Amino acid sequence: MTNATRAPLRLGSVAPDFKAETTKGPIQFHDFISNSWVILFSHPADFTPVCTTELGAVARLQDKFDERNVKVIGLSANDLKSHDKWIEDINEVNHVKLNFPIIADDSREISTLYDMLDYQDLTNLDAKGVPFTVRSVFIIDPKKTIRLTLSYPASTGRNFDEILRVVDSLQIGDKNRITTPANWKNGDDVIVHPTVTNDEAATLFPGFRTVKPYLRFATQPGTQKA
Question: Full-prediction pTM beyond 0.70?
Fold first, then answer.
């Protein structure tokens, strides 16, 4: 299937597999995912100011991602030699040690596969006039299913605390029959899933409270005091 006829990537799509060279060695993407969650996020180019701060921010959150069985992998439209030099800057500027892989995608093959290229900002081009990527984010679960997509303009750095928040919501929702309300944070009350009957909720979520028949709140599973 060509890029022109490939179905668009949507929530629930299987993340396309690919081979790539990374700063941690070659990978087959589905093998890299294995039984983990994955955050794949793209960068327009190496040695750019916003990207440098973003990668530092993710490096600082590495322990939090590890706690959640999340692998992080970046992508930038440059080669490995450039990536390796850029990582030195990232570590120096942000006072971190970046340990996750960054994909070398100077051919834009993976960026095209995941529809990451910038068609809005006419200044976001390389010397040959080829578009760089926008700031795309994909959260992919262990079944290789895309669970979240985000696209930020090249001029705006991403909020990785928000991305971590979404991971928490998805993981808790997969384990329990709940959804999460606006501005929810890990540990806050959750919403009982609409498919759960009141009788079931009484067992699953003791003490749940009904605001409307379609809106029932409960203590987040696993946070109840003994």
Answer: yes
